[in-house]
Specification:
734 residues, histidine kinase, EC 2.7.13.3, five-stranded mixed beta sheet, 76% helix, phosphorelay sensor kinase activity, Serine Threonine Protein Phosphatase 5, Tetratricopeptide repeat, alpha+beta, single chain, Heat Shock Protein 90, 7 strands
């Protein structure tokens, strides 16, 4: 018990030390909860669980806005429904804030206003400053789209007061950016820059990536209005680099649109169409009405400038209709001026005048001098085409005056001074961060060294205890393993004995079946023939001469039967006895000569020459009696299938560590079909050249006996040429 207690304490200490080390790990390794994890988290009791679910739905809506506004609206709406059901005011207000955001983004101004005003009322009751500030900002952005700059600034300034009081820097950054947008929309570029850079200082200081990108883009738009195109492109590129890797698809689309407009102003129409088309795909996917209106106008102008006026007018008409439907005054003015531009190019001055004048009036309503300048330029060109030169001259002077104001020295100087201040602030922040990082690294290194010393000590102690424990467990396991090995050995021996007995029984059954088959089919005919002869002798139905004539045939059958029984009995004996004990080294010449001499006369009676070509001195390692049986069978087979004038040669050679014995004849030979049937379980015996009979099992016996002697047997034959049976045996020991 004491040992286990000490071991647990050590292991706990090791775990604690590892936990201390994990504190110094990179923050990236810890990450943040994914949306999926947030949704699957346990909720608790019913009411609390419902409020948690509402908060999850609203957080999902917020996360989805940049990538999929429709999904954002769906989740927010579901959150509001559930919050109303359980009477959860904060959930209702937060959900309405999200639905209002999507509604004004989609051009649904009236529903957006209702949602946001209800959210403001609830946030005021709850005294929720952050929520109230966010609702004011959303209302301000909506009124900006509707060109109601007075109300837009009113709500944005209300939000600014709250954000300054609660010192919410992320909200302040966004607040300054949106106020800058209002001043830009009114053509007050200097004031727009004031607020943009206020937001940018905070964003850069705190390394807010996406707000920094949005502000770089907005400053680029100011530079674009001042026609400082190269610098504007630099700011747009900065924005794109910061947006890279985020899901801010809408923002990326906006930057691409701005780059396209700069390229359009620089008359790089093909490049402009490429950027604008990318942005259009995002706007369509997001349902961004504001973006669609301006993109259709920009693309319409690009197509018109590239001699495709019909397509250009189609895009511009679409922009006008869309902006009128959703009451987007700025986009409507921009599209009308675009239409007047195309009609001026076509010298259709009456239509150009109507559209330019409408655009000019809307520009006055907007108080946007940039739009007013474009309208004045087109009115001047239109009136000149209509021969109304005095009016044309007046609008031309107005255009030149506005252009001068847009490029005033104050804006340029502010831009330069702000950039210097921002660069200085950025460098100062970087130096402070580097100093802080060095101090942090030094402290972390000290803590790491201290932790390593403690851990090393704990690990050493733990290792000693673990090794001691392992040693004891190993000894106990060895005893158990030894006992198991003894039991396993007993089981294996019993199984081996049982398998051997089973194998022997199977072999005996197989042998029995084969012997019965042989005796039933191959010995019955000769015995029946002999019995028939004796029956004839008994009833004296044949003459003495007829009997004498029959005797040679009977003797031949008996000789065949006798040889077959000798072979069969020897083979049976080889199957049943311990055959390996009879293997020995013998002189090949002695064994083969005896068998060859025994069959020389039989061969001579058929007119066949049987020759012994076996050299002296060769020794083989096998059972001599088995080899005699094999030679006897192969020689009798050769005699059987040769005719008068044929030759049979028996030879032996040494090849490496074996002896190869061959019986070659010039007899009838075999075709491929016959060759494929040799050495099988059963072969149909062929009649010899003198009608000699056979069982078809001789070659099977030969194969079995040769393989038992660790040899191999094979045959080469060609019909009408002859046959060579060969077998190999291990070389004998001297």
């Amino acid at each position: 018990m004491l040992f286990k207690y000490i071991r647990n304490i050590i292991l706990l200490a090791v775990a604690n030390c590892l936990l201390v080390l994990s504190v110094f790990a990179s923050p990236r390794s810890r990450g943040v909860d994914s949306i999926k994890t947030l949704l699957n988290a346990p909720a608790g009791d019913s009411l609390f669980g419902d409020t948690v679910k509402v908060n999850r739905l609203i957080r999902l809506a917020s996360n989805y806005f940049q990538s999929n506004p429709d999904s954002a609206f769906y989740f927010a709406q579901k959150g509001v429904e559930l919050a109303r059901k359980i009477n959860y005011p904060e959930g209702i207000a937060n959900g309405l804030l999200q639905t209002g955001h999507v509604n004004y983004f989609k051009g649904r101004s009236d529903p957006a206003k209702r949602d946001l005003e209800e959210a403001i009322a609830i946030f005021k009751q709850l005294k929720n400053d952050k929520g109230l500030s966010a609702a004011y900002v959303s209302l301000g952005r909506m009124y900006n789209l509707l060109a109601n700059y007075h109300d837009a600034l009113k709500y944005l300034n209300l939000a600014l007061v709250i954000n300054k009081r609660i010192d919410d820097e992320p909200a302040l950054t966004n607040n300054y950016k949106n106020i800058g947008v209002i001043y830009y929309s009114q053509g007050e570029l200097s004031k727009a820059l004031d607020f943009y850079y206020k937001g940018l200082y905070i964003a850069v200081k705190n390394q807010y990536r996406i707000p920094s990108a949005e502000l770089y883009n907005n400053i680029g738009v100011v530079l674009q209005s001042m026609e400082v195109y190269p610098t504007a492109l630099e700011y747009f590129e900065k924005a794109l680099r910061l947006f890279k890797g985020t899901k801010s698809y809408q923002a990326v689309g906006t930057v691409n649109e701005n780059i396209g407009e700069v390229l359009l102003a620089q008359k790089q129409y093909k490049k402009a169409v490429n950027n604008l088309t990318q942005s259009l795909a995002v706007a369509k996917r997001q349902g961004d009405i504001d973006g669609l209106c301006s993109l259709y106008t920009d693309l319409g102008l690009c197509f018109a400038y590239t001699n495709n006026s019909a397509k250009g007018l189609l895009y511009l008409d679409t922009a006008v209709q869309l902006s009128q439907k959703y009451k987007y005054v700025y986009n409507q003015a921009y599209a009308l001026i675009g239409l007047s531009t195309v009609y001026n190019m076509q010298h259709n001055y009456s239509k150009a005048y109507d559209n330019a004048m409408q655009g000019y009036k809307l520009a006055g309503q907007l108080k946007n001098i940039s739009v007013r300048a474009k309208a004045s330029q087109q009115l001047s060109e239109t009136l000149a085409g209509l021969n109304r030169f005095n009016e044309a001259y007046r609008y031309l002077n107005e255009y030149l005056s506005i252009k001068t104001k847009l490029k005033d020295n104050e804006s340029i100087q502010k831009l330069t001074s702000y950039n210097y201040a921002l660069d200085f602030s950025t460098k100062e922040r970087q130096l402070k961060e580097e100093e802080r990082d060095r101090n942090l690294l030094f402290q972390q290194e000290i803590a790491r060294q201290r932790s390593l010393i403690i851990i090393s000590f704990v690990v050493i102690v733990a290792m000693v205890i673990i090794l001691f424990s392992y040693y004891r467990q190993k000894k106990a396991q060895q005893k158990i393993n030894a006992l198991l090995e003894v039991k396993n050995s007993e089981v294996i021996l019993q199984k081996a004995s049982l398998d051997e007995q089973t194998h022997k029984l199977n072999d005996l059954n197989s042998l029995k079946d084969r012997l019965i088959s042989i005796l039933a089919h191959d010995l019955r005919a000769p015995l029946s023939t002999l019995r028939g002869v004796f029956d004839l002798l008994q009833d004296e139905s044949i003459t003495h001469q007829e009997m004498l004539d029959m005797i040679p045939g009977v003797i031949k059958n008996l000789d065949y039967t006798s040889d077959f029984l000798d072979t069969l009995l020897f083979w049976i004996n080889s199957q049943l006895s311990s055959f390996a004990n009879s293997v020995s080294t013998f002189r090949v010449k002695d064994v083969l000569k005896y068998e060859i001499d025994s069959y020389v006369n039989s061969a001579a009676k058929k007119g066949v020459s049987l020759t012994d070509q076996v050299p002296a001195g060769l020794s083989a390692l096998a059972d001599p009696n088995s080899i005699r049986i094999v030679i006897r069978n192969l020689v009798t087979n050769a005699i059987k299938f040769t005719a008068k004038g044929d030759t049979i040669g028996v030879c032996a050679i040494r090849e490496a560590n074996k002896v190869v014995i061959s019986i070659k004849d010039s007899g009838s030979g075999m075709d491929a079909t016959q060759l494929s049937k040799l050495f099988k379980e059963r072969v149909d015996s062929q009649v010899g050249t003198n009608k000699e009979l056979g069982t078809g099992l001789g070659l099977l016996f030969c194969k079995d006996l040769i393989e038992r002697c660790n040899g191999k047997i094979w045959v080469i034959s060609e019909q009408g040429v002859g046959t060579t049976f060969s077998f190999s045996l291990p070389l004998g020991r001297d």
